[in-house]
Amino acid sequence: IGEWTVSGARFPLEMARDADVGRNSLLIYQLTSNPSFSLSMKEKPGGKKQPELVLERPLDREKQSSIDLVLTAVDSGDPVRSGTVQVRINVTDLNDNPPVFSKSVYEARVAENLPAGSVVLRVRATDADVGSNGRVSYSFGNVPDVVSSLFAIDSESGEIRTAGPLDFEEENKYVFGLEATDGGGLTDHCEVQIDITDENDNVPEITILSLSSPVPEDAPAGTVVALVNVNDPDSGENGQVSCSLSGEAPLSIVASSGGSYKVLVLAKALDREEAAFHELVLRASDGGDPARTGTARIRVTVLDANDNAPVFSQAEYTVRVPEDVPVGSVLITVTATDADEGPNGHVKYS
C-alpha cells in the first residue's frame, strides 16, 4: 500500500474455506487491532462474505515501513474451530521528504596555492525516503563563474575539491550556495564559506620613485638622494618588510610616515675625488619563514664641486740665469695641478 493512499481505501483479503456445512461452516472474520486499519465484510453472490482491509488513516513509511496483522476466521460450530493467516502490509514509499543538509552553513580554512584536486570539505544531506526518492545528488547553486572555475563538487559524495589555484591576494574568502536534489526533484540548500589563508608566496617589490643623480659632492648630510616604494602583497608577518643597504655608499635609509616608502639620504659628505660614483644594493626582506628577499641596484654619480685649490709641484723654484740672457728666453716651467674636474680643475697662471 502506498503511503499516498487516502483514507477509506479498501483491499480485498483472501476468503477462508470450511469443508463443513450448515452452521458449522458459517464464518466470522476478526482482525488484530491496529489504528491504521479496520475490517469490513463485502457481500458476494451466493451469500458469501469477503473480508476487506479498510485504510483508516494515511500511512507513513518513514515511521513504519511494514505492518503485520493476523486475520482470523471462526466458524459457528460447537466446539468452535478457527483458522488464521498473517497479513503483512509493506508501505510503498512516496517522495514526501526532501533532502536535508546536516548543516545550514559549512565552513573551511585552506591555504592558498593548494594543488588542483585537493579536498576542501565534504557536505552531507540525508533523505528519509528510499530508492531513487532517497538518492541525493549535489550541485552548485547559482554561483559566479570564478567559484565554478576554482572549485568542483562530486555530485555523489558531496566532496568539494579545488579546481584551480587559490590566491589569497586576489580573494581571501568565498561564499556560495550548494543544492541537494533527490530522485523525485525535491531539494535543500546550504551555504559554504571557504576562508583562504596567506602563504609567503610573494617577493617584496622595490620601486624607485625618484633618484637624484648626480649628487653634488658638497651636498650636506641629510640630503635626499632617492625615494623608493617597498610593497609585499602578503599579509601579517609575511608582508612586513625590513630594508637594508649594502655597498660603500655613504647613504642611510629613513622610513617615511606611510610605512611603505623609504628615503635614502646622505649619511655624510661626499668626496668626488675619492669616488666618482657609488653602487649599492637595496634589499627588502619580509618576515615569513623562510623569508623572501627582493633587491634593487642603485648607482649614484657624484658631481664635482670646486673644493680643491691648485697645487704647485714645488713650493719654491730657484733659477740661476746669466745677466745677458736674451729677452724672451724661457727661464723655467712651473706646474700646478687641481684635483677637481672640468672648469674647476682648469688652472691658469699669473
CATH topology of the largest domain: Immunoglobulin-like
Query: How much helix is in the residues?
Result: under 10%
- The best one-word shape is rod-shaped
Radius of gyration: 50 Å
Looking at this structure, what is the CATH superfamily of the largest domain? Cadherins
Mean pLDDT: 91
Distance between the termini: 132 Å
Unreliable segments of 5+ consecutive residues? none
Number of strands: 25
How many domains in all?
A: 4
CATH architecture label of the largest domain: Sandwich
Secondary structure class reads mainly beta
- Specify the number of helices: 1
Largest sheet composition: 4 strands, mixed
- Kindly estimate the percentage of residues that lie in beta strands according to DSSP: 35-45%
Structural description of this entry:
It is rod-shaped, with a radius of gyration of 50 Å. It has 4 domains: 9-90, Cadherins (Immunoglobulin-like); 100-197, Immunoglobulin-like (Sandwich); 205-303, Immunoglobulin-like; 307-349, Cadherins (Immunoglobulin-like). Strand 3 (37-43) and strand 4 form a beta hairpin. The chain has 1 helix and 25 strands. It starts with 9 loop residues before the first strand and ends in a 13-residue tail after the last strand. The protein has a 4-stranded mixed sheet, with no helix packed on it. It has a 4-stranded antiparallel sheet with strand order 16-18-21-20, with no helix packed on it. Helix content is 2%, strand content 42%. The model has no long low-confidence stretch (mean pLDDT 91). By secondary structure, the protein is mainly β.
